């Protein structure tokens, strides 16, 4: 209801944003009086919401506006993908609203015009800390989910190269290492995201797990996933099989595959994991990383690969590093070349206004000066229009 | 003792009041009734020779257009009474100003070049002119000097008064030469730079060789020239093991045979295969304009690093190559 009213307010009044926001926080009863008195003047100004909830229809006119993600999608598609602070915000506001921004729109434009016969194109979001790379990635994932693509989403590749308690020697290849816990959690989330695909896709090879269990050729992929979830020892191998099968079969055109990896620079960096003799493990010695590297290579057709490089969570990289070559290193760049780099920058003034308005609408900013011009200027100065910083600042207000 | 101090204070009083005059006229009202000696007399009234009244500083008698080199003909410590500048130096107390020059130890401690003003240096040059020869008329610009005399030798001589005229610092010889003036081809230049390491400055293209391992300056000079000769000849030779130069040894990024080339080739081949367009060969694929542009953008990205320009160029070239809108 508030959405409709804000749109009416904007179309009725010819106001500067300061006054506009002030009226936005007033009680709805005064609206009737306003409508009687004033005449509808010009086009709607910067409203922070749009009712267009399908990412496919997002265009430049929606730039800066928040759109709603339904709870259904949250549970399936985004069971493990959203940044933790955003999840908290969703819980607080009881709605998930994502801002439509230019980098995401650019990527959606490319995705809409993908040629599925050509090899998969790689798109890399890069930008400074807190500018919204992960949420842009989530926007594109939502788009692909609505278009009925199969989503292969690794929420944070950095989690796989550090803090792993139980490293087992891989059953498939003695040189590599397994990470059973992480693999099984990931498989569970993958299952919730792509439930309907798992029964359609059939495995094209026979896989023998151990002396008693094996998966026959032609059985649905869901079985492999189940096997991985139940038998935690084989979880990493199950993940490897899933990746291999998906890659092979996406070229045939049954489904479209979106590979989304956040923090892809972890694949070519260093790990903090050590063997029993305290010698460090290189990333390619982890079975999961090895398989994932094969996945982001562009030797398959029928989909797209969307990646972000982030310093947050990365190992042995300086805090100010945000450019792709710095974070990927020589090896990573050579592996990902050719890719399309997309810069995600801080909010522009329109987006900043929209964000403040959204917080005010949800009564998140309780400070009495928050809706005034000086308050906004102060927030602008303190956060430098950085989305992450702004969100942290507003949490205190 | 009070008695001894009193005349001194009385002597000071008139001086404080009358800055310049020698006169001893003081207002009788302020004077103590005790009889005080005249300040110009040197009476030994109290059994101690009185101090002569301090003369005004020399700065007051200096004309503006005086001959400064005669005030400071040699290096001398800073004399506040001889330097007519109102210099202040020191850390000020709160709400104060730096200390004045009178009795300022800071000004004494630092080296001063009051004996080397432009006027003084001009006079030195005039005096030295008798011992100099003419500058060659043909060398009237810097470029000509550099063209005919590309090697520059720096040596230092030391003169000091002491028991020995030798100074061990005098044996150091620095040889500077621009590599552009040497006849080097691409391989030779890269090899020379690798051989000398830190001694080459990339921004000014100058090779600096500093020698001091021999006891005499003459010997060090010969050694520096020998080093230059050896470097030049060695860099022109190609050894057997130079064939094993790997990508990590390369000074700059080379596109040919790089992984980037391979990637793009594979990608293009796959695109062509998808479009059932297998007539184009490898060379033709690599020779197209888009690939050329892509090559340039990758080379600039690798050599210059990431910045707005190179990244946007790279993005455009990839978009064009992969036929994205």
Q: How are the elements arranged and paired?
A:
The complex is a heterodimer of chains A (397) and B (325).
Chain A: H1 2-12, H2 17-24, H3 30-37, E1 66-69, H4 71-76, H5 84-93, E2 96-99, H6 102-112, E3 121-126, H7 133-146, E4 150-154, E5 168-169, E6 177-178, H8 180-193, H9 195-200, E7 207-208, E8 214-215, H10 221-230, H11 235-250, E9 257-262, H12 287-295, E10 303-308, H13 324-336, E11 339-343, H14 349-361, H15 373-383, H16 387-396
Chain B: H1 2-17, H2 68-71, H3 105-109, H4 118-129, H5 142-148, E1 152-155, E2 173-178, H6 186-196, E3 200-201, E4 206-211, H7 217-236, H8 259-274, H9 282-287, H10 289-304, H11 308-321
Antiparallel strand pairs in B: 1-2, 2-4, 3-4
Helix pairs in contact in B: 6-7, 10-11
Oligomer: heterodimer
- What count of structural domains of chain B? 3
How much helix, percentage-wise, in residues of chain B? 25-40%
Total number of beta strands of chain B:
4
Shape by Cα distribution of chain B: elongated
Level-1 CATH class name of the largest domain in chain A: Alpha Beta
Q: Could you tell me the strand content of chain B as a percent range?
A: 5-15%
Shape of chain A: globular
Number of continuous helical runs of chain B? 11
Task: Characterize the main sheet of chain A.
Answer: 5 strands, parallel
Write the CATH architecture name of the largest domain in chain A.
3-Layer(aba) Sandwich
Helix content of chain A: 40-55%
Task: List segments of chain B where confidence is low: pLDDT < 50 over at least 5 consecutive residues.
Answer: 1-12, 14-19
Would you tell me the overall average pLDDT of chain B? 82
| Series of H and E elements of chain A | HHHEHHEHEHEEEHHEEHHEHEHEHHH
Series of secondary-structure elements of chain B, N-terminal to C-terminal: HHHHHEEHEEHHHHH
Total number of helical segments of chain A? 16
Query: Helix/strand/pairing class of chain A, anyone?
Result: alpha/beta
The CATH topology of the largest domain in chain B, please? Double Stranded RNA Binding Domain
Keywords (chain B): Coiled coil, Ribonucleoprotein, Ribosomal protein
Pfam families (chain B): MRP-S28
Organism (chain B): Neophocaena asiaeorientalis asiaeorientalis (Yangtze finless porpoise)
Protein name (chain B): 28S ribosomal protein S35, mitochondrial isoform X1
């Amino acid at each position: 209801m508030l959405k409709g009213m804000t749109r009416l307010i904007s179309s009725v009044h010819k106001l500067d944003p300061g006054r506009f926001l002030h009226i936005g926080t007033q009680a709805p009863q005064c609206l009737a009086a306003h409508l009687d008195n004033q005449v509808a003047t010009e086009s709607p100004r910067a409203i922070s919401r749009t009712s267009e909830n399908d990412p496919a229809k997002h265009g430049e006119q929606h730039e800066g506006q928040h759109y709603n993600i339904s709870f259904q999608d949250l549970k399936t598609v985004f069971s493990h993908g959203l940044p933790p602070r955003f999840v908290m915000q969703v819980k607080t506001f009881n709605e998930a609203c994502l801002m439509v921004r230019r980098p995401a729109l650019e990527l959606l434009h490319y995705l809409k015009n993908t040629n599925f016969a050509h090899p998969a194109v790689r798109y890399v979001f890069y930008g400074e800390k807190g500018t919204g790379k992960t949420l842009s990635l989530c926007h594109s994932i939502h788009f692909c989910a609505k278009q009925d693509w199969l989503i292969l989403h690794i929420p944070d590749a950095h989690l796989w190269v550090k803090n792993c308690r139980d490293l087992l020697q891989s059953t498939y290849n003695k040189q590599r290492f397994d990470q059973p816990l992480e693999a099984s959690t990931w498989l569970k989330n993958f299952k919730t995201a792509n439930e309907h695909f798992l029964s359609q896709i059939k495995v094209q090879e026979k896989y023998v797990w151990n002396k008693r269990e094996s998966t026959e050729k032609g059985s649905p992929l869901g079985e492999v996933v189940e096997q991985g979830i139940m038998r935690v020892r084989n979880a990493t191998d199950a993940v490897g099989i899933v990746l291999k099968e998906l890659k092979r079969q996406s070229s045939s055109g049954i489904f479209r595959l979106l590979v989304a990896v956040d923090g892809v620079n972890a694949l070519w960096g260093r790990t903090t994991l050590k063997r029993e003799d305290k010698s460090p493990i290189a990333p390619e010695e982890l079975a999961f990383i090895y398989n994932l590297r094969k996945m982001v290579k562009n030797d398959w057709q029928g989909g797209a690969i969307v990646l972000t490089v982030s310093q947050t969570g990365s190992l042995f990289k300086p805090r100010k590093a945000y450019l792709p070559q710095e974070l990927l290193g020589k090896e990573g760049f050579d592996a990902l070349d050719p890719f399309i780099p997309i810069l995600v920058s801080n909010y522009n003034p329109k987006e900043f206004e929209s964000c403040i308005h959204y917080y005010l609408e949800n009564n998140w900013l309780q400070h009495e000066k928050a809706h005034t011009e000086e308050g906004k200027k102060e927030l602008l100065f303190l956060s430098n229009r950085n989305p992450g910083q702004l969100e942290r600042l507003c949490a205190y207000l | 003792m009070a008695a001894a101090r009193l005349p001194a204070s009385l002597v000071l009083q008139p001086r404080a009041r009358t800055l310049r005059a020698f006169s001893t006229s003081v207002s009788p009202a302020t004077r103590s009734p005790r009889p005080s000696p005249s300040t110009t007399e040197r009476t030994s009234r109290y059994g101690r020779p009185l101090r002569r009244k301090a003369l005004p500083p020399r700065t007051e008698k200096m004309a503006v257009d005086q001959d400064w080199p005669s005030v400071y003909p040699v290096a001398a410590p800073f004399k506040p009474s001889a330097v007519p500048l109102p210099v202040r130096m020191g850390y000020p107390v709160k709400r104060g100003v730096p200390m004045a020059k009178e009795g300022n130890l800071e000004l004494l401690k630092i080296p001063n070049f009051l004996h080397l003003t432009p006027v003084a240096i001009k006079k030195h040059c005039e005096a030295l002119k008798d011992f100099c020869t003419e500058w060659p008329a043909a060398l009237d610009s810097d470029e000509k000097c550099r063209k005919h005399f590309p090697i520059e030798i720096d040596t230092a001589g030391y003169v000091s008064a002491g028991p020995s005229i030798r100074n061990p610092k005098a044996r150091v010889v620095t040889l500077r030469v621009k590599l552009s003036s040497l006849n080097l081809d691409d391989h030779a230049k890269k090899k020379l730079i690798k051989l000398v390491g830190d001694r080459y400055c990339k921004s000014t293209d100058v090779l600096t060789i500093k020698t001091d391992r021999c006891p005499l300056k003459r010997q060090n000079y010969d050694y520096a020239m020998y080093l230059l000769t050896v470097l030049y000849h060695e860099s022109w030779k190609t050894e057997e093991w130079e064939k094993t130069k790997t990508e990590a040894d390369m000074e700059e990024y080379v596109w040919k045979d790089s992984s980037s080339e391979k990637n793009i080739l594979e990608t293009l081949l796959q695109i062509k295969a998808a479009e059932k367009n297998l007539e184009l060969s490898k060379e033709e694929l690599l020779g197209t304009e888009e690939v050329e542009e892509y090559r340039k953008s990758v080379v600039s990205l690798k050599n210059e690093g990431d910045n707005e320009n190179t990244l946007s160029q790279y993005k455009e070239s990839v978009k064009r190559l992969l036929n994205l809108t």
